[in-house]
Amino acid sequence: MQTGKILVTTDLTEISDIAAEYAADLAVQLNIKEVVLLNLLIPSHIQITAASGGAYYLPYHVTHKLNDVLFNKRKDLVEKQAKKCSKPGVTIKPVVEVNHNTSDINHFMIEYQADLLVTGSRDKFSFMEILLGSETEKMIRKIDYPMIVLTDEPISSTIDSIVLAIDVELEDKQQKGLESVTEFAGLLNAHLQLLYVITNGNISATAAIERLHQLAKKKNMHNFSINTMENSSLESAIRNFSRKYKPDMIALLTQGKGKLHNLIYGSDTAGVISETDLPVFVARSVLG
């Protein structure tokens, strides 16, 4: 995981302010010089067509003029948000892009040479839903970059401890995302709390600890500790672990237990994050 730029998605809501400010603080800690603040503008004719169920269309010259007005207004708002979230030594670059529902998030990550995505979301009908439409879960699974999701304002923007939920039953090729989590933690000098949740009794605590030790050695981890916990669900285990050990961030792999959509938006995990105010670092475990 390189750290050239951070891309922050914004829909100009309060949670987007939180995400932008968090990204700016993170940029300072990672010595990143630029944060791109991206807002997507859905063209007026697409909005009107969707709202009317395809029953109403405006002439091109009308929608073209309306798009110009909307673009300039949105540009002004994003510039104000960027100014409000600015930090010494970090450039916050405000950007408004017209999106015709043909671009996925990887396109914008490449265009702006970003290596990390930060997004705020209190529910699934957020920036990611606008960007990815009905294929949200499927497309998030395809993202080629690590991302941080915030659903509330973190207690602290300083990251000293990260709990990383790992499924030791997965094959090595399904653990690719560990590299980006490990590198991210290393750049911040953060302690990794490796956690395996025993949900079905297939692996004993002793065997899980041994596998975690082997995995940590193979992935060249240094600043870490190993934990196991018995629980019927990963979500509940993370909630209990976070209450007890108070990490600053939760890290998950998209191919771990449960679906990414449920891990971020499911009722149990939403409770975990809202109660502890923890950001969630999501790494894709299988590339290609």
Keywords summarizing the entry:
288 residues, alpha/beta, Rossmann fold, ten-stranded mixed sheet, 11 helices, 10 strands
SSE layout and pairing:
Elements: E1 6-9, H1 14-30, E2 34-41, H2 44-51, H3 60-84, E3 91-98, H4 105-111, E4 116-120, H5 127-132, H6 136-141, E5 147-150, E6 161-165, H7 177-188, E7 191-198, H8 205-218, E8 224-230, H9 234-245, E9 249-253, H10 260-265, H11 267-276, E10 280-283
Parallel strand pairs: 1-2, 1-4, 2-3, 4-5, 6-7, 6-9, 7-8, 9-10
Antiparallel strand pairs: 5-10
Helix pairs in contact: 9-11
Detailed description of the structure:
With 288 residues, the chain is of the alpha/beta class. The protein folds into two domains: 145 residues, Rossmann fold; 123 residues, Rossmann fold, CATH 3.40.50.620. Helix content is 43%, strand content 20%. It is built from eleven helices and ten strands. The protein has a ten-stranded mixed beta sheet with strand order 3-2-1-4-5-10-9-6-7-8, sandwiched between helices. Helix 7 links the parallel strand 6 and strand 7. Helix 9 runs parallel beside helix 11. The longest helix has 25 residues. The radius of gyration is 20 Å and the shape is elongated.
Number of domains: 2
Shape, per Cα inertia axes: elongated
Q: What kind of sheet is the major sheet?
A: 10 strands, mixed
Instruction: Note the beta-strand portion.
Output: 15-25%
N-to-C span: 16 Å
Q: Give the overall pLDDT as a whole number.
A: 80
Name the CATH architecture of the largest domain. Answer: 3-Layer(aba) Sandwich
Query: What is the CATH domain class of the largest domain?
Result: Alpha Beta
Which regions are unreliable across 5 or more consecutive residues at pLDDT < 50?
Answer: 132-136, 267-272
Helix-strand string: EHEHHEHEHHEEHEHEHEHHE
Strand numbers in spatial order across the main sheet = 3-2-1-4-5-10-9-6-7-8
* Count of helical stretches: 11
| Radius of gyration (Å) | 20 Å
User: Structural class, judged by helices and strands?
Assistant: alpha/beta
Tell me the name of the CATH homologous superfamily of the largest domain.
Answer: HUPs
Question: Could you estimate the helical fraction of the residues in percent?
Answer: 40-55%
